[in-house]
């Protein structure tokens, strides 16, 4: 018997994001042959989103771009996945998180990762216009941490990583696709 084939198009060429999408969907379809590729997809928001609303909009813009790109090129995918990391100031303090936007069969599902509290000096650097990955690289003397464990990995001693958080959030955002009968309007 030929295994089920599933194609995924991710709105980023970041290897952490591509691996997270593949790992999350592979968990739902363990015997499937999964092909996962990434493309540069514009977010249409600031390089460093500074609110939950802006972050969610970035993920949605990226996933819609992926779907339109696939339609325009004639190479459509089963799942379109986009992730956008952002920060916001909450009543409990500054935190970073990511929004996931997924499309399957023209249905959009949105998910969000857990919140990671940020040190005040990191948030202040972000407010001044820096990007989280660059601030973390400077503080921890790392290079291109956003394509590795991310701020999450650095601040949790790698007990959680950018990839692990993205994978979990994608798994949650997949729920409407896996349980369509419960989510039908």
UniProtKB/TrEMBL annotation:
Name the residues that bind substrate: 76-77
Extract the Gene3D superfamilies matched here: 3.90.950.10
Boundaries of every Non-canonical purine NTP phosphatase/PRRC1 domain copy: 11-178
Cell wall biogenesis/degradation keyword on record: no
- The first-level EC class reads hydrolase
Q: Which cofactor does it need?
A: Mg(2+); Mn(2+)
Which keywords has UniProt assigned to this entry?
Hydrolase, Magnesium, Manganese, Metal-binding, Nucleotide metabolism, Nucleotide-binding
Show the NCBIfam families listed in the entry.
Answer: inosine/xanthosine triphosphatase, PRK05074.1
> What's the protein name?
Inosine/xanthosine triphosphatase
Q: Encoded by which gene?
A: yjjX
């Amino acid at each position: 018997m030929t295994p089920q084939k599933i194609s995924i198009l991710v709105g980023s060429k970041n290897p952490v994001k591509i691996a997270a999408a593949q790992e999350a969907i592979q968990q739902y379809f363990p015997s499937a042959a999964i092909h996962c590729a990434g493309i540069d997809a514009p977010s249409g928001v600031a390089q460093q989103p500074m609110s939950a609303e802006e972050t969610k909009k970035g993920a949605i813009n990226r996933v819609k771009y992926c779907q339109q790109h696939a339609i325009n090129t004639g190479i459509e995918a089963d799942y379109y996945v986009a992730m956008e990391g952002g920060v916001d100031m909450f009543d409990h303090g500054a935190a970073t998180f990511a929004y996931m936007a997924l499309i399957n069969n023209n249905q959009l599902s949105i998910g969000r990762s857990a919140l990671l509290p940020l040190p005040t000096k990191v948030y202040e650097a972000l407010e001044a216009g820096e990007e989280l990955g660059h601030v973390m690289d400077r503080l921890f003397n790392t290079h291109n941490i956003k394509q590795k464990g991310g701020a999450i990995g650095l601040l949790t001693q790698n007990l959680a990583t950018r990839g692990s958080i993205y994978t979990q959030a994608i798994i949650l955002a997949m729920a409407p696709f896996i349980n369509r009968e419960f989510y039908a309007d």
